[in-house]
Amino acid sequence: MSNPFEGSGRWVKAALHTHSTLSDGTLVPDRLVQAYAEVGFGVVAITDHWRLAKPRERDDVVLVPAAELGFDMRYPRYPRQSAEFLAYGIHDIPEDPGGDRSNWYSNAEDNYEVRTFPSLEAGCAWTAEQGGVAYVAHPYWNQLTEAELVEASGFAGIEVFNGSAETECGRGDSSPWWDSLLGDGRAVLGIATDDQHYPLFDLGRAWTMLHMTEPTVEEALSALRDGATYMSEGPLIHDVIVHPDGIEVRCSGARDVRVQTEEEWGAGVAVGHGGRRQGRVLATDDAGLITGAFVEADPGRRYRRVVVVDAQGRRAWTNPL
Ligand SMILES: [Zn+2]
To answer: Which range of residues forms the domain containing residue 112?
Structure first.
């Protein structure tokens, strides 16, 4: 995959999984976009359940038409279990997506509805026909089996971190599913989101940065398609330079800078002297946190992705480089 830290363009903060009053969120679409604009987001994709939100166009935020849709699982672990994917760049919502109706339901109290495509592939194919891009939502929260994702195709990536699932029940981090797919040699991308429902509590808990040359929906979609992105729940990644024998990272103050690869071949550099360093610290801030590091990483690995951890334990993740 190409390195989005190279080349021209700028990083724009994106909310890619968020709910309005069209489903189980608490703000109307226009107010929701305003809430994100006020805290520095430049891209918002409202992803209501089986509803396509159409907030008012505005100059300062790129609005990506999107929804959170369901699919019948190939390997459900539980009765009537379905799972979700996020469809970006779509124009309508299918009335009858063709899945198993015994998996459909509506929850009037929380104002949401679940329908399903017959498979994840069918949902991804429908999204592609619309000119859109699909990402699998919260695999850990949904308890997807590894086989469910390994045997499916058509999605650009998975939701590696979901803030709402983390807050609700500690199931926000789906990076083990990601490493399984990457270890199989699949070019799967990641996004991080807040999955906002209650803005005072969860808006901005995590986000995805999109590398864009112009503020347009097409640019946002191509960043999602090509992996011109990185994810964060706090730290900033300023630059990533791939060297023959390792990866150089420039970031906001970090406690750890790691490179993850297949099997157990990852490596890391940490602050202090207590641990093993596979690389070196290149720069620190006034608090002694790492702002530049070189991490040893064999170019022969199937994939190499960077994780930056700040002093509070919040992470930022790159796609495979
Ligand atoms: Zn959601």
So the answer is: 10-232
